[in-house]
Amino acid sequence: MTRFLRRYMKRTIAILIAVMLAAQVPAVKELLARGAATLYVAAKYPGQTVKFEYFAYEPHFGDYIISYTSQKTDSLHLMLAPRTFPIFVKYDPWSQPMSD
């Protein structure tokens, strides 16, 4: 392995560790979750105009819930996981199949 690759790998690992440690701070965790949810909503529902409402950890479910209000339809409540790094949308009620 060349010296350049070793140095590059060390920097990459150091940056990943720094991001993971920073994600444990509640303000950074909320910022990451809001960013991930905003990207998800923009990609999944490009025609909808939604406005951020609130972000909270729900201990009953063990996940974070982020809510948006929409002018056309009801509110959108997304469930984000995992608890330590909430960037994955676990549940989206708008993408569920309709039942009769």
- Most strands sheet: 4 strands, antiparallel
**What series of H and E elements makes up the topology?**
HHEEEE
Q: What portion of residues is helical?
A: 25-40%
Structural class: alpha+beta
Morphology call: elongated
- Number of domains in the coordinates? 1
Question: Topology of this structure?
Answer:
Elements (H helix, E strand, L loop, with lengths): L2 H20 L3 H19 L5 E9 L4 E8 L5 E6 L6 E4 L9
Antiparallel strand pairs: 1-2, 2-3, 3-4
Report on this model:
- By secondary structure, the chain is of the alpha+beta class.
- It has a single domain, classed as Nuclear Transport Factor 2, Chain: A, CATH 3.10.450.
Question: How would you summarize what this structure contains?
Answer:
The chain is an alpha+beta fold and 100 residues long. The chain is 39% helix and 27% strand. The model has no long low-confidence stretch (mean pLDDT 84).
Which structural traits does this protein have?
100 residues; Nuclear Transport Factor 2, Chain: A; four-stranded antiparallel sheet; DUF3139 domain-containing protein
